[in-house]
Amino acid sequence: MLKEQLKILIKLATIDNELAEKEANLIEKIGKANGVTEDEIYQMMKNPEPFKSLETLSEDQRFEYLYNIIQLMKIDGKVYKSEIVFCQEIAQKLGYKKKAVAELSKSIYSDPSITSDREQLKDRLRKYSTR
Prior knowledge:
It is built from seven helices and no strands. It has 131 residues and is mainly α. The protein has a single domain (2-128), classed as Orthogonal Bundle (TerB-like), CATH 1.10.3680. It comes from Marivirga sericea. This is Tellurite resistance protein TerB.
């Protein structure tokens, strides 16, 4: 399941046709923390693949996907309209309304060392669930 998440993160990171160093570092950090080798991560970045359906994920997994893609969107300090639209599309595929992206964006920081209260964010996100 993590490789699917990495595929989504890579897609988001390259939506502006470049992979910023901070974005690559975050993807690498997430992958390594979850047992994906550096070589596998590099290959995924070099040859991005389409990702599978997101419909079978648990509520916690859906939240983590959305949290990570929003953090990745913000990590390089530039947020493009195309990135927001992509995040909204992923949010909808995860079973959330588009407004969920704006709600979470307010509390997710570009610096991964600054963490938000995830349980509180999950509670706030429930009102945007379409499932």
